[in-house]
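User: Sequence recovery, please. Input:
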């Protein structure tokens, strides 16, 4: 399998909503188990895996103003939510016998190591799955931007973004049955067409550092491993045609 791999080190971006229970909040045990299985199956091939998880199943920073909470404070609450999600996913992964580390951009030493780039890469080299929590540690930045930043810092070969659909479309395929799927896009096409891949800061970071982004459907079993093997699933965003 190792010779078939397209990538040796990947950064997986999971949304908090992906972990949510049917009510849209909290954790779904079956989802946690599924994702842990997908991630450990990938890791077993020798791929080094980093993960950034969002916090939307607990609290979305951008919606804080609806609760009378100013934006910066709301974003910090959201960062704490990502730490909870990272710990839950860590437990599910370690239940499958794989070593992990949670590295947090906020200091919370009782449950997570502080984020240090060299420490993160050393954990990856030692075969541990590394979960990056608390976003960038700064308000006004999304966890998509955190995923781009961490992927670049650890020297990932690709940023894999997990979604509920099988790639990037010109409109919402859950609402428009005639939506067109893209097999490949450039960073500039994503930005100019305002396609909902990641926010503009995240895409710009990837473009400036020539980091490809692969968008795939996380709900199809085996898709993560197929993506790492370079199978043509989802949508790839990069500088230009290979």
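Assistant: Recovered sequence (242 residues):
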């Amino acid at each position: 399998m190792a010779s078939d791999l397209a990538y040796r080190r990947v950064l997986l971006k999971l949304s908090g909503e992906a972990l949510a229970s049917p009510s849209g909040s909290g954790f779904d045990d079956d989802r946690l188990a599924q994702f842990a299985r997908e991630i450990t199956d990938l890791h077993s091939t020798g791929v080094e895996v980093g993960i950034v998880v969002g916090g939307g199943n607990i609290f979305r920073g951008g919606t804080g103003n609806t609760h009378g909470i100013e934006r910066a404070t709301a974003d910090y609450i959201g960062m704490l939510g990502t730490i909870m999600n990272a710990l839950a996913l860590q437990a599910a992964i370690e239940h499958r016998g794989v070593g992990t580390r949670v590295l947090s951009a906020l200091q919370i030493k009782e449950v997570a190591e502080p984020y240090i780039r060299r420490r993160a890469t050393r954990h990856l080299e030692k075969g541990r799955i590394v979960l990056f929590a608390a976003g960038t540690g700064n308000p006004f930045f999304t966890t998509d931007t955190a995923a781009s930043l961490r992927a670049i810092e650890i020297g990932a070969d690709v940023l894999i973004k997990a979604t509920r659909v099988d790639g990037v479309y010109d409109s919402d395929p859950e609402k428009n049955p005639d939506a067109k799927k893209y097999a490949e896009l450039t960073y500039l096409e994503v930005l100019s067409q305002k396609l909902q891949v990641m926010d503009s800061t995240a895409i710009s970071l990837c473009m400036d550092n020539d980091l490809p982004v692969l968008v795939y459907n996380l709900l199809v079993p085996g898709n993560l491993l197929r993506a790492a093997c370079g199978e043509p699933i989802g949508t790839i965003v990069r500088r230009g045609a290979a």
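The radius of gyration is 17 Å.
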